[in-house]
């Protein structure tokens, strides 16, 4: 008989679960050390007890940087088959998490199918579905609807939910007193703000936070505390609204942990490179070491069409400074919903950022892959280079399109190949 | 009558040249301050007196990060017309420097045409042309050939030359005593190493460095001191060979400055993110504040096909830490010579890195562009967003391919657009 509720509850009791064992092995980490981190909250293992197909992953201190992919059905893209194709591609490419942002149409059916087929952890933003599923006007949504939707998602097996509990009356006052260039750009956060203004109520996720925690504990849903005030442009980053909300998220984190509910904190957004390290530090301090989940950050606002690159720069810096979980950004960001191709580009760019950061923060064995590639290069072993490439198909295609003077080398240097020259000279 | 030889010579005499005036205006910098930096050597303005079409740019302390594009004719790509098309595209895209790496065929004719049409500064690696132009076997090249080629390039109007003067007997001993996974990957550096091994001579650029300086002073060629020992993989970075060579480059820098020759120092290569800042610091200390010109650095070895991204991450971090000049990296790196399309992708990725770094290091007015974009976004002014985009064509194409619920917003959020919701709620 199971003698614990959540992974955190087990960890606090000193129980090592199968889930912890799986994660520890993947991370080359002693399972007892992992258990301690889960008990403290510095590592979260989002694994809803109803998500039977899950292949669990940990997010947090000392672990490999993880990646999330967003998808889902909406009014502009109400094609579940195409979104399921994205799911298959994302799983094939080894992403650790998928967030289902569906907000229109047969959201429940889509979510259930997704959870069934996915070994990756599944996240949702229940507030989207409040509007998508109930099909009510904003002002007609009742406070109890917000919590009811979390329970529904929990029953379905969702592993983590984004909850904008920090966008309460206090946060909205701070926001109104500190004007921003871009106002609010968080979709869920802006919906909560608008709903509060329309109804006069406080944020029900904040007001009934203890009820929310009871639901999370029942299914072991990890709370991903959303940042309604995440900056939408460099001009608004690290401002009063953002930090005010972060303080609240830190307070909520302690309340969640007291009820053995696992927590992840969501973060920016857009910010200049020189602010990233301080933002990671602030999150780790104000939120007591809870895992940090960042969207980007995008280090410039001027590159629509290339935000997978602006996001890779920011994500790599954030993760190397201690962020634990990267939400992918695709070239379609700020322009349209991503296609499957956009998604692939976004996944690769984010993978590069995560891996570069894992090397920098000396995650065990992260460098092995790079050293194998260097060995293949100095051996001019092209097949091995392709096998090891992050995208073997693209690497092969590039070389196949080159006209080669010599099959050993590449067209970049031809017979002037440094590797060949030195090999010859060292004979 | 002109009373100075090089820009540095003028600066030391307290003369403000037209070239300095142009650069100071572009940089929003007081021209007297710029003159001081040129006199000290912390800023270089590569502008050969024979390059009549030049639109001068400064490289160094307090200035906007500059970008270089590599191209040129070689045995594998002996198509001057295609390379000249690359030149036109690169100039259109606003690159500040083009390095002509031609090493086979009608190199002289190509170089002359390039210099004539280019407002951007032009760099070369004369040692490539020693082999390309003289068409001799490595062992048959005479020490005097190396210097003669620099004079030839100077006469033609080349603004900066990469010279691997640091790969001398001492450096090659250090290299042999400290085995590396990837040996040497610098093309020019490996050629010098191989030539030294074959002939038994020391590096003529090192041995006759004073003669080299006289040639440079005559035309005001900026010396770009190459790093033969730049790491070719993460495993070899910041090792004895690399730092030994950097010490020599620092010594040569002082000798060059004593003869009023401007200097830029070339740097890695491949290295993990956590080593970049220390490498910039080392260069600035050991080379007395000379401008730093980096290739990448690539922060992981595993992403052939995406090295414009690994290079953008490294370049952004390097430039924000004080590197002054980024050599672009294209997706074709490690695979083949870049096509025009590869070049475009490389330029945009490098531009993003340079701009993100300029924001981070608070280069005057760098943020204006971003703030204008944020303003356009909050106004949902799509035409303005496209005008401001780093690549308006790609941004437009992305949006045109989306099916839109509403022309105001984008398909990412549709009617759930945060910007619209908040605007409504704030009414």
Automatic annotation (TrEMBL), chains A, B:
<feature type="binding site">
    <location>
        <position position="293"/>
    </location>
    <ligand>
        <name>substrate</name>
    </ligand>
</feature>
<dbReference type="GO" id="GO:0009229">
    <property type="term" value="P:thiamine diphosphate biosynthetic process"/>
</dbReference>
<dbReference type="GO" id="GO:0070284">
    <property type="term" value="F:phosphomethylpyrimidine synthase activity"/>
</dbReference>
<keyword id="KW-0004">4Fe-4S</keyword>
<comment type="similarity">
    <text>Belongs to the ThiC family.</text>
</comment>
<feature type="binding site">
    <location>
        <position position="99"/>
    </location>
    <ligand>
        <name>substrate</name>
    </ligand>
</feature>
<feature type="binding site">
    <location>
        <position position="270"/>
    </location>
    <ligand>
        <name>Zn(2+)</name>
    </ligand>
</feature>
<feature type="binding site">
    <location>
        <position position="266"/>
    </location>
    <ligand>
        <name>substrate</name>
    </ligand>
</feature>
<dbReference type="InterPro" id="IPR037509">
    <property type="entry name" value="ThiC"/>
</dbReference>
<protein>
    <recommendedName>
        <fullName>Phosphomethylpyrimidine synthase</fullName>
        <ecNumber>4.1.99.17</ecNumber>
    </recommendedName>
</protein>
<dbReference type="InterPro" id="IPR002817">
    <property type="entry name" value="ThiC/BzaA/B"/>
</dbReference>
<feature type="binding site">
    <location>
        <position position="70"/>
    </location>
    <ligand>
        <name>substrate</name>
    </ligand>
</feature>
<feature type="binding site">
    <location>
        <position position="410"/>
    </location>
    <ligand>
        <name>[4Fe-4S] cluster</name>
    </ligand>
</feature>
<comment type="pathway">
    <text>Cofactor biosynthesis; thiamine diphosphate biosynthesis.</text>
</comment>
<feature type="binding site">
    <location>
        <begin position="186"/>
        <end position="188"/>
    </location>
    <ligand>
        <name>substrate</name>
    </ligand>
</feature>
<keyword id="KW-0456">Lyase</keyword>
<feature type="binding site">
    <location>
        <position position="128"/>
    </location>
    <ligand>
        <name>substrate</name>
    </ligand>
</feature>
<keyword id="KW-0862">Zinc</keyword>
<keyword id="KW-0784">Thiamine biosynthesis</keyword>
<dbReference type="GO" id="GO:0005829">
    <property type="term" value="C:cytosol"/>
</dbReference>
<keyword id="KW-0408">Iron</keyword>
<comment type="function">
    <text>Catalyzes the synthesis of the hydroxymethylpyrimidine phosphate (HMP-P) moiety of thiamine from aminoimidazole ribotide (AIR) in a radical S-adenosyl-L-methionine (SAM)-dependent reaction.</text>
</comment>
<dbReference type="Pfam" id="PF01964">
    <property type="entry name" value="ThiC_Rad_SAM"/>
</dbReference>
<dbReference type="InterPro" id="IPR038521">
    <property type="entry name" value="ThiC/Bza_core_dom"/>
</dbReference>
<dbReference type="GO" id="GO:0009228">
    <property type="term" value="P:thiamine biosynthetic process"/>
</dbReference>
<dbReference type="GO" id="GO:0008270">
    <property type="term" value="F:zinc ion binding"/>
</dbReference>
<keyword id="KW-0949">S-adenosyl-L-methionine</keyword>
<feature type="binding site">
    <location>
        <position position="334"/>
    </location>
    <ligand>
        <name>Zn(2+)</name>
    </ligand>
</feature>
<keyword id="KW-0411">Iron-sulfur</keyword>
<feature type="binding site">
    <location>
        <position position="164"/>
    </location>
    <ligand>
        <name>substrate</name>
    </ligand>
</feature>
<feature type="binding site">
    <location>
        <position position="417"/>
    </location>
    <ligand>
        <name>[4Fe-4S] cluster</name>
    </ligand>
</feature>
<keyword id="KW-0479">Metal-binding</keyword>
<feature type="binding site">
    <location>
        <begin position="227"/>
        <end position="230"/>
    </location>
    <ligand>
        <name>substrate</name>
    </ligand>
</feature>
<dbReference type="GO" id="GO:0051539">
    <property type="term" value="F:4 iron, 4 sulfur cluster binding"/>
</dbReference>
<feature type="binding site">
    <location>
        <position position="413"/>
    </location>
    <ligand>
        <name>[4Fe-4S] cluster</name>
    </ligand>
</feature>
């Amino acid at each position: 008989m199971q003698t614990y509720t959540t992974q955190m509850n087990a960890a606090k009791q000193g129980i090592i679960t199968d889930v912890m064992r799986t994660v520890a092995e993947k991370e080359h980490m002693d399972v007892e050390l992992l258990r301690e981190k889960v008990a403290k909250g510095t590592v979260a293992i989002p694994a809803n007890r109803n998500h039977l197909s899950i292949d669990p992953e940990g997010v947090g201190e000392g672990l490999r940087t993880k990646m999330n992919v967003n998808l889902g059905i909406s009014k502009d893209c109400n094609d579940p088959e195409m979104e399921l194709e994205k799911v298959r591609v994302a799983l094939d490419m080894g992403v650790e998490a998928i967030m289902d942002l569906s907000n229109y149409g047969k959201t429940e059916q889509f979510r259930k199918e997704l959870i069934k087929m996915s070994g990756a952890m599944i996240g949702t933003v229940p507030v989207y579905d409040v509007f998508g599923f109930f099909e009510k006007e904003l002002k007609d949504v009742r406070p109890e609807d917000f919590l009811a939707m979390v329970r529904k998602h929990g029953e379905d097996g969702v592993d983590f939910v984004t909850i904008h509990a920090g966008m309460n009356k206090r946060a909205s006052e701070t926001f109104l007193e500190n004007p921003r260039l871009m106002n609010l750009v968080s979709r869920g956060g802006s919906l909560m703000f608008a709903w509060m203004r329309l109804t006069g109520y406080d944020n029900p996720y904040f007001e009934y936070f203890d009820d929310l925690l009871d639901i999370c504990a029942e299914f072991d849903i990890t709370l991903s505390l959303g940042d309604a005030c995440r900056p939408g442009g460099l001009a608004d980053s690290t401002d009063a609204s953002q930090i005010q909300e972060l303080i609240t998220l830190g307070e909520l984190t302690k309340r969640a942990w007291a009820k053995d509910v696992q927590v992840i904190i969501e973060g920016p957004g857009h910010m200049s490179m020189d602010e990233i390290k301080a933002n990671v530090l602030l999150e780790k301090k104000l939120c007591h070491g809870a895992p940090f989940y960042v969207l980007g950050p995008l280090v410039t606002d001027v590159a629509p069409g290339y935000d997978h690159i602006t996001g890779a720069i920011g994500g790599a810096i954030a993760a190397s400074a201690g962020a634990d979980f990267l939400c992918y950004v695709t070239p379609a960001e700020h322009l349209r919903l991503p296609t499957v191709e956009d998604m692939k580009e976004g996944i690769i760019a984010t993978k590069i950022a995560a891996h570069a950061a894992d090397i920098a923060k000396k995650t065990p064995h992260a460098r092995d892959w790079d050293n194998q590639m260097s060995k293949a290069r100095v051996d001019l072993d092209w097949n091995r280079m392709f096998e090891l490439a992050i995208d073997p198909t693209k690497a092969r295609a590039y070389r196949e399109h080159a006209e080669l003077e010599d099959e050993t080398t590449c067209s970049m240097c031809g017979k002037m190949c440094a590797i060949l020259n030195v090999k010859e000279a060292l004979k």
